Amino acid sequence: MNRNVLFLFIIAFYFLVCSAGPAAAAKPTVTADTTYYDTDTGLYLLKGNVRIEAGSRMITAGQARVSLSSLEVWGSDGITLTQDNIHLTAGSVYAYGTQNKAVLGGGVTLSQSHITITADTADFNWRTKIGTFTGNVQVTQGSNTWSAASVTYNLRNGRLE
Fold first, then answer.
1. pLDDT tens digit sequence for 133-147
2. Cβ neighbours for 118, distance < 8 A, ≥ 6 positions apart
3. Which of 31, 75, 115, 119 could be joined to 137 by an S-S link, Cβ 3.0–4.6 Å?
């Protein structure tokens, strides 16, 4: 089977397993400047302008690796994760698709119209839409800005928990 077709099938399966709601029904589009399958590690290696879109969810990165067996994704170099009104940026991401979770590092920013949260790291659950931000946390809501060791933010209801 053509490696690119196999790769697109795996990514499509990943998004079907990992996504909930409208994004789950959409056929993903995956692009990168370079795609390589490493038979020794079982990983697809994507480099340059990596972009994965499924419905309203989009992930971009400078480079990424995808595990065929565990449906894990590692990305780095200018990560953005967007879906509807959710916009996250980070230096790196580790997504474990079977649990609908992502761990972001390297400086994380969540931006929405009414709140901005920056932190060293974040854990985000796509199913519950809850993010936990830790390390040098700065929260800006309107004209108010404050610091915290960590915050948990529910994106469904727009509240800090």
1. 999 999 999 899 999
2. 107, 108, 109, 110, 133, 136, 137, 138
3. 119
- Could you tell me which of 109, 56, 122 has the C-alpha nearest to residue 78? 109
Name the strand (E) or helix (H) holding 109. Answer: strand 108-111
39-85 residue pLDDT tens: 998 888 999 999 877 667 788 999 998 775 676 789 999 999 888 88
List Cβ neighbours of 43 (8 Å cut-off, separation of 6 or more): 37, 65, 66, 67, 68
Which pTM was predicted?
A: 0.79
Of 108, 154, 158, 156, the residue nearest 133 (C-alpha): 108
H helices of 19-96, in order, are 22-25
Residue 2 DSSP one-character state: -
